[in-house]
Amino acid sequence: MKKVVAILVVLLIAGALGWGWRVRQAQGKRPDAGFKDDDVVVVKRRTIDSVVEAIGEVHPANQVQVKSEVSGRVQTVDVITGQLVKRGTLLATLDDTDLLTEKSAAQTEIDGAQLRLDKAQRDFDRQRDLHREKLVSQEVFDSARTTLDLARNEIEKSQRRLQIVEDKLSKVRILAPFDGTVLNVAVSKGQVVSGATGVAQGTDLMSFADLNEMVIRAHVNQVDAAKVQPDQVAQITVDSLPGTQLAGKVTLVAPQATMKNNIKGFTVDVLITESDPRLRPGMNANLKFPVARVEKAIAVPISAVFLEEREKVVYLRSPNGPQRRVVTVGIADFRHCQILDGVADGDTVLLRRPATAQPKP
């Protein structure tokens, strides 16, 4: 009797083991076997904000390199770096000794020219009277008139030369062009500087800017630049000011593309409309341009969408195995994309391509 019982126990155990093995084998043959919970996601509705992101650098909206219009030796530097000044404040002066000497010589030249003019006028008046009486020839009279004209021309040239010297003297005092801040001073007392006769010429004396109005200049790639328009709002964060949110407005989208770091794009300027007093030129800033927003959109993770034969597809989990669905994609953020058709709310999609569905060229 004991042997019969033992045999029955052994048979029951063997049967249980066999049944478990068959179950495991059946599970192993399920079409969606091998996909864990982390490999699938349920399609849900969510709000998708499509934004264009860029990194730029803070610049003053109005910044100039202060130069002297005349050459000379720096006599005084009247400001320091970081100083706030009003328009018309004296920034620096140049030594005017040589110009004063030149002015004195020009004045002496005018005095001499005036004497010669007075003599020429007297000679002309006399020759005119004699010519009327026919006591001198026409040639003598014409010569006197020519001498008078030359004397007048000479004094006009002397007066213009004096005016030029006086104009230079008025420029030895370099004044602030507008209310602003001295960013840096590039010269020191006693240094000889050259005058600016053109935009790219002359010695830089100092950098000067209005820090109350700042812009961020960014390089946006050519694909995203088409989505950014003038007057569009921008969200700004600055790495140097953690936790600070600033607001801005696009003031310029360059009409011509440029290359930066081997990427073709367009320069975009953003005027900071809500600033922070701690903001300084040269700081890096992160820009976000909201371009589209869809609420309650059917959305899937971007990793669930695959490109096959120029079609965008997703794979749905089903009892019969992964189902391939061609989908139409709408807007996207950095994690999810909107699905316009092809899947429904509540479907379960795979986050990695099934082994049986190889990508086609």
SSE arrangement:
Elements: H1 2-28, E1 40-42, E2 44-67, E3 72-77, E4 84-85, E5 90-94, H2 97-132, H3 138-170, E6 173-175, E7 180-185, E8 192-193, E9 204-221, H4 222-225, E10 233-238, E11 245-253, E12 258-260, E13 263-274, E14 284-301, E15 306-308, E16 311-316, E17 323-326, E18 328-332, E19 336-341, E20 348-350
Antiparallel strand pairs: 1-20, 2-9, 2-14, 3-5, 3-8, 4-7, 5-6, 7-9, 9-13, 10-11, 10-14, 11-13, 12-13, 14-19, 15-16, 16-17, 18-19
Strand content: 35-45%
Biggest beta sheet attributes: 6 strands, antiparallel, barrel
What's the helix count?
4
What's the rounded overall pLDDT mean? Answer: 86
The proportion of residues forming helix, as a percent range, comes to: 25-40%
Alpha carbon gyration radius: 43 Å
Number of strands: 20
Strand order within the widest beta sheet: 2-9-13-11-10-14
Q: What is the 3D form?
A: elongated
The H/E string reads HEEEEEHHEEEEHEEEEEEEEEEE
Sheet/helix structural class? alpha+beta
Contiguous low-pLDDT stretches (5 residues minimum) are 4-33
Distance between the termini: 71 Å
Give an overview in words.
- Helix 2 runs antiparallel to helix 3.
- The chain has a 6-stranded antiparallel barrel with strand order 2-9-13-11-10-14. The protein has a 4-stranded antiparallel β-sheet with strand order 6-5-3-8, with no helix packed on it.
- 28% of the residues lie in helices and 40% in strands.
- The radius of gyration is 43 Å and the shape is elongated.
- It has 4 helices and 20 strands.
